[in-house]
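Hello, quick one for you while I still have it in my head. Could you read through the record and tell me how the C-alpha cells relate to the sequence? No rush at all, and the record is pasted right below.
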Amino acid sequence: MACDVGSPTNRPSTALTVASRRTRTVRRFRCARVPGRTLNICSKRARLGEFYQHDSRVAPWTGTAHGVLQSVNTYPQHEGVVRGDRAERNSLRTITGEFADVDPKTWRALKPVLAAA
C-alpha cells in the first residue's frame, strides 16, 4: 500500500483483512469514490465492481476492505482506459506521484462507508 503507514490517520486497521464486507457496502463505496450519475460514471463503477469481484489480482482479498483498496489501486494500472502505451502511462503516473495518491484517497472514501456499515 502506498499510504504513509507511520501516520496514525492513514494507517489502515486490521479490519482491512479481517472484516467481511457486504455487496451493499462495496456499492456505497463505489458511489462515494466515483461520484456522479452519467453513463460513463455508471460504466466505470460497474467495471470497478466486476474487477473487485472477479479479478485474480484482487481475489485473495475479495470480501474485505483491503480487497476494495486493492481493486481501486490495481484497476487503473491494468484495466483502465489508456490512450497510447500503458507501460509509459503507468511509469509517468509513478514518477509524478499520481499512483501514490490512490490509496490515501481510497482509504478516505472508504472509512465513512465502513463506519456506517
Residues 1-20 have pLDDT under 50 and may be disordered. Residues 77 and 87 are 9 Å apart (CA to CA). The chain has one domain: 18-116.
